[in-house]
């Protein structure tokens, strides 16, 4: 049970597709910083949700960037929930 | 007179490249340089109206794009493909700009004397 923390823009992260293969359906994904730009793209949201239903995004980072999420399946979390998530999974990988 | 083209290709909060490019544009323009500004790839995210970087205690440098016209900087070019890929509509942009196809944008770049990319 691993939490995959992404922080780079999906549009410019070269290995975005290949890192998806590291994610199993028991894992979680947390979008932070420029990775939150994925929220405004249905295509990227579906790519993430295909790997696991547990997909989260750090809300302050989305507000700062003026992002309008297109899909509600990705839950927005604040910093406190971020900490809870990190503790819930027995490991965190920062991509 | 030599012309100066400045290319923005990173998101507003990726690094301070965005802030530096604004400072460079305003400085060059205040010395009467012929300045043109290009927004490509993730650089188009700098133009989003809805940004609130102060939430993360970041300076909202995108506000000073509005000052470009007072410095006679009217050549602001945005890559159409980058906008479409990121499904950004032109009404979401916070500055008056020309949205160009790749060929048009590359042609503008080709006849700039000096080109600076900030990333």
From TrEMBL, chain A:
One of its GO terms (cellular component) is sulfurtransferase complex. It comes from the Bacteria. It holds the Pfam family DsrH. One of its GO terms (biological process) is tRNA wobble position uridine thiolation. Gene3D superfamilies: DsrEFH-like. InterPro entries: DsrEFH-like, Sulphur_relay_TusB/DsrH. This is Protein tusB. The lineage of its organism: Bacteria, Pseudomonadati, Pseudomonadota, Gammaproteobacteria, Alteromonadales.
From TrEMBL, chain B:
Gene3D superfamilies: DsrEFH-like (3.40.1260.10). Coiled coil: none annotated. InterPro entries: DsrEFH-like, Sulphur_relay_DsrE/F-like, Sulphur_relay_TusC/DsrF. Pfam families: DsrE. Belongs to the DsrF/TusC family. This is Protein tusC. It comes from Aliiglaciecola lipolytica E3. The gene is tusC.
């Amino acid at each position: 049970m691993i939490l995959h923390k992404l922080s780079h823009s999906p549009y410019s992260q070269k290995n975005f597709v290949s890192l998806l293969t590291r994610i199993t359906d028991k894992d979680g994904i947390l979008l932070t910083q420029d990775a939150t730009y994925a929220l405004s793209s249905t295509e990227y949201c579906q790519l993430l949700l295909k790997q696991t239903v547990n997909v989260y995004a750090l809300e302050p980072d989305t507000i700062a960037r003026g992002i309008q999420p297109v899909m509600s399946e990705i839950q927005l979390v604040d910093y406190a929930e971020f900490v809870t998530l990190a503790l819930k999974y027995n490991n965190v990988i920062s991509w | 007179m030599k012309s100066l083209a400045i290319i923005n290709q990173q998101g507003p909060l990726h690094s301070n490249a965005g802030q530096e490019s604004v400072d460079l544009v305003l400085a060059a323009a205040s010395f009467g340089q012929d300045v043109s500004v290009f927004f490509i790839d993730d650089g188009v995210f700098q133009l989003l109206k809805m940004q609130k970087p102060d939430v993360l205690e970041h300076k909202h440098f995108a506000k000073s794009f509005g000052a470009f016209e007072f410095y006679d900087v009217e050549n602001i070019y945005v890559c159409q493909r980058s906008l479409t890929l990121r499904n950004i509509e032109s009404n979401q942009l916070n500055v008056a700009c020309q949205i160009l196809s790749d060929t048009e944008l590359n042609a503008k770049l080709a006849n700039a004397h000096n080109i600076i990319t900030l990333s």
